[in-house]
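[step 3/7] fold_predict: job queued, chain A
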Amino acid sequence: MGSPSASRWSFPFHPSTSGADYYVLHGRVTLEEGSGLHADIAVHMSQTVREALPDVDAKHAQAHAINAIRKSIDTQNIEFLKSGKRQPIPLSSRQFSITTQQFIFQNPSDEELAEYLKRKVYWPTKLGAPKVWIADPCEGLLSRA
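[step 4/7] structure written:
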């Protein structure tokens, strides 16, 4: 499967309209390889995470939302489809340590990190990208332990 790319967001996170005590961000993640497969998503931010962030706008919450989506993709908890079925993605206290006040999305081994970096360079290059941004600050959140 190709490399996913976030293509559309509706920032800022907004309170759930269903009466639940979480915040929601809707978006679409597409595969860059041109198959038309995508995942319409609803990132659900818990109240604990909301209180840990200065704001729910893109500046303060986008990197965390992207990493929650990446984790759901890596663990195969979302499905890429051609239809518009919206799929939930949690951004909750499971990813946020109240003790350390840090987000923890993944703790990759050296082998997993090396494999990720290979894919990070391979897919954009294969798709014709002139450069690949390795030092993405959003991805820097992935290795915090």
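[step 5/7] annotate
The mean pLDDT is 81.
The radius of gyration is 15 Å.
exit 0
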